[in-house]
Amino acid sequence: MKLLGLLILSFICLFAFPYLGRGDVNFSSDEGLFILNQLRFPRVMMAFVVGAGLSLAGLIFQGLFRNSLATPYTLGVSSGAAFMVSLWIKLGLSFSFYWFNGLAIAGFLGALMSITIVMTLASALKRFEPSTMILAGVGQGMFFSSAVLLLQYFGNVFEVNRMVQWTFGGVEVIGYSSVLKILPVLLIVSLLAWINAGALNVLTLDEDLAISRGINTKRLRKFLFFVTSILVGFIIAEAGPIAFIGLLAPHAMKKIFKFDYRQLIPASLLFGGIALSVCDLISRIVVSNIEIPVGIITAFLGGPFFLFILIKGREES
Amino acid sequence: MLLEIKNASLSLGGNPILKNLDLKIDEPCYLAIIGPNGAGKSTLLKSIVGIHGLDTGEVIVPDNFSSFEFFSYVPQSLAVMKGYNGWDLLDCFLYPERLKDKKNTEINDLLTFFDVSSFMERDLTTLSGGELQRIYLACALASKPKVLLLDESLSSMDPHIQEEVIQKLEKVQKETKVTIIHVSHQVNNAIHVSDRILAMKNGEVFYNGETSSFKQSDLESLFDYKFNCISHPDTGRPMIVPGKGEK
User: Fold this and answer.
1) Do the Cβ atoms of B69 and B43 come closer than 8 Å?
2) With an 8 Å Cβ cutoff, is B218 touching chain A?
3) Range of A206's domain?
4) What is the pLDDT of residues B8-45, one digit of tens each?
């Protein structure tokens, strides 16, 4: 029932938001149709897919690490990506691979690099300690953030500008190619998470109980962490780091839905999509003549929401 | 053969916890595991279900079972999580299956038998220790295991509830032929209810056999303590009377 509501809201976002925006666009003219079909619709779809993907990633990470602070960002994945992108810009590399451009590849490689570090740490430890992994993520995140600052310090004005622009994060796209790159990965990862939903329910309650029910918790964690990180890599490559959706959307859904991944997975996907679409709409219309990067909007709205969750959580426990 | 543990050894953090331990269960029974703190009782249960991998030795179950069909394990510290109620816990114990119909007669009979039907809808975090133990016990039996492993699973219950639950467990064991392996510090209960006793000391088997031949002297050298014991009027088994023991 609640899921149906989210589904309806999602359709409203996807099909109504493209018609909203600054300026008078005559949608019956050729120019208007071009704006609608090549800019507005792809952009709204991009926002939806990116939001859904980050939200799903946050939900899975929070379950795997049994920690409500686990997101692509707290685990250092986005900092690793930012570092590689900045390095790419600083070295003045230009390179493309099939239909992926250089910056996207750098972002993807950076994300993979961070994952590899966390995974290596995970297998070095005999038992996968969720809290240690979070600390490791935070640690490497700080390391890469300062490496980015170092690169910026040595960069010239244009380089620094590009680096900073990238870290804003955005879903401005032309045409559907970015959406089409992310969407298949998103669908596959969603399916894999869905298949493991029952096991995630047990694992979230208690690891020992999960093992006694025949779940190979170590393998499940590694597998889901890996595929989810690939998804995050794809998203960061195309949209840059967009903060807080991965934290905010799954948390909101856990308050509304009961704790069952069979429901939480579709709900987080839809709500993440809706949330980022709304943030993107705000970024397009709230200030006349300027588009604020959507990454700034999410962090701006996400910060207070995050504090709200912290205080509310304290009251309830 | 139902369950066999062969030559099990395990060290945790450099400390040997289990030392060349053997245990063989041929027939369904109620087996109580007793012994002083740190004897390795809980670790043995965890090794049986695969939470700790053994350094050497093996746990053998009949070929035609996988571990989740064969065992049901109730840990010593029971996990609770906001958002999970009794039904969710039941689904966890039924994994990889799940309960399709809350009106399932068999399940409801079981829940009624253990008097937990009334708090199945409540969030696990709001239950008292004893209620939680009862709900875990009922859910653990719902998956129809061949072997039920209990780790101090009655410790927080009121005395009269404890008495009832022990009688119920005894009944379930006799009727469904489930083997119950029960780690307990409540020695009187353990000796009273069990068919067999495995007494462990320093990671080794101290006594392994029929409860009926377990003597007061065995109990005293197991704990290195002189208990004031009487014989149970019905069974003649040693029961500790509190207050007059000495080193």
Assistant:
1) no
2) no
3) 2-12+42-311
4) 999 988 899 999 999 999 999 999 999 999 899 999 99
